[in-house]
Amino acid sequence: MAKKTDKKLSGWDFSPSPEGTSHIALKDKYDLFIDGKWVKPSSGKYFDSINPSNEEKISSVAHANQADVDKAVKAARKAYNGAWGKMSGKERGKYIYRIARMMQEKARELAVIETLDGGKPIRESRDIDIPLACNHFFYYAGWADKLDYAFPNRKVESLGVAGQIIPWNFPLLMAAWKIAPALAAGNTVVLKPAESTSLTALKLAEIIEESGLPAGVVNIVTGFGDTGAAIVNHPDVDKVAFTGSTDVGKIIQKAISGTDKKATLELGGKSANIILEDAPIDQAVEGIVNGIFFNQGHVCCAGSRLFVQESVAEVVINKLKQRLDSLYVGNPLDKNTDIGAINSKEQLQTIKKYIKIGQEEGAEMYQSPCSIPTKGYFCPPTLFTNVAQSSVIVQEEIFGPVLTIQTFRTVDEVIQKANNTPFGLAAGVWTDKGSRIFNLTTKLRAGVVWANTYNKFDPTSPFGGYKESGFGREGGLHGLEAYVKLS
Ligand code: ADP
Questions:
Q1: According to DSSP H, which parts of 45-170 are helical?
Q2: What atom of ligand 1 comes closest to residue 231's alpha carbon?
Q3: Atom 26 (ligand 1) nearest CA
Q4: pLDDT per residue over 137-178, tens digit each?
Q5: Which residues are catalytic?
Q6: How far is the CA of 75 from the centre of ligand 1 (A)?
Q7: Where in 205-342 does DSSP place strands (E)?
Q8: Structural domain of residue 174, as residue ranges?
Q9: Residue 192 Cβ < 6 Å to ligand 1
Q10: What is the pLDDT of residues 221-263, one digit of tens each?
């Protein structure tokens, strides 16, 4: 029996329990999905999609250039002016429901491909990413014929062609966040997945093809930043929806300034998770672990800065260390795995760079003594104590399983510290008192504030940031509003 850690954990050890891969169908090579057909990239170029847990190639993916993007935008415009634009909301809703049901039927396959391509634990993709992605399609399907109720006493019009660019941390879920509300509101779409995680978006394209959705309503173009830039700069794109880094978000905002393109940008974060002394400590510790470690810290709203009230700091830090020691880092396909592979070699290098900076800044580091696979991109869960508010690792987004811990004495002090970053995506508050929750949630400058829980999502709730975390909301009615013109 292979052991996954050096330590026997509380007298328990688990047998490996890998999810099977025999039920998945992946092609060796993927073309672009444009105008309802699979077309070769005009440059003839393809790039490799790599499994980050073993560095093996999974498939080749087409690299779309400006000419391909132009083809996709033209197809989207034709569909908008044609069949899709003329279709009733009720009929649009039926297609969206059909896509949701087909995704549900293929949920197991989608979960395994998400894990193979992106490195996240199968437990996450199976229980969170894929069900939530399906639920977004179900939720927005319900709105398609009720736009007049969604925005009463307003004239509701669709925008036209939406150009959508998504990152690698929640590949299928981000595609669902973008495509479902756009279609419900009557728009057509050109979507580009991230270069390291294109496969589930391409599987979604197969589902869309099978669903009979009119050609050109959804086009999936794969590629790198240049492909994304071609979408953003295309003159016939009416709306840009982007999720990714703050740096690229700023480039996009500059690129579209002076045009009448609508935009929503969901960017980086450095979210604070705050434990007050009256909090249920064990529950809070589990919430902290869920907030930063379970998805390798690959969550824009990850609770990467922990603030603990001084009187309970020692007990919380000790419990966190104990819990860290029991986390399994390894094969993402294993159902016992808590922390899978870092998404790419580049991202692992970035995380390691920040860990080094933390040590050089004089912070105290604790890493779980787990063994990590020798092949693939892995990083043990890491805590830093003795950090200053001005530390680089406290201020900058690391996007890895790295948590900084600071203490505080008063609520006013923690509000100031928590708000003292350029970001404002999310926050968490752990306390027994409802009044304290209300006090903190009104003063924290963050788009989402969770109370006594963390990283919980629902298609009906809006999500988005303040400050450099971007603007616009996705999810719920707010997410629908981002795809309509109201007058
Ligand atoms: P991350 O740091 O999370 O990889 P990025 O912002 O680099 O985030 O990437 C998010 C998405 O934006 C990816 O699909 C990427 O290919 C795309 N992208 C990168 N550069 C640009 C750009 N200049 N214009 C448009 N899209 C881009």
A1: 66-81, 83-86, 89-105, 107-118, 122-124, 130-143, 147-150
A2: 25
A3: 228
A4: 999 999 999 999 999 999 999 999 999 999 999 999 999 999
A5: 266, 300
A6: 23
A7: 218-220, 239-243, 262-266, 272-275, 305-309
A8: 12-267+469-486
A9: yes
A10: 999 999 999 999 999 999 999 999 989 999 999 999 999 999 9
Regarding the beta carbon of 224 and ligand 1, being less than 6 Å apart is answered: yes
Look up tokens 């480039």; give the residue: 251
Residues 38 and 185 in one domain: yes
Alpha helices in 293-329 (DSSP H): 310-325
| Ligand 1 atom closest to the CA of 255, numbered from 1 | 24
* Strands 305-309 vs 402-408: parallel, antiparallel or unpaired: parallel
Nearest Cα to Cα of residue 267 among 118, 124, 114, 399: 399
pLDDT in tens, 103-130: 999 999 999 999 999 999 999 999 999 9
Contact between 240 and 263 (Cβ < 8 Å): yes
Same domain, 254 and 313: no
Judge contact between 278 and 323, C-beta under 8 A. no
**Could you tell which of 168, 245, 248 is best to mutate to test the pocket of ligand 1, judged by most ligand atoms within 8 Å of the CB?**
248
Count of domains for the chain: 2
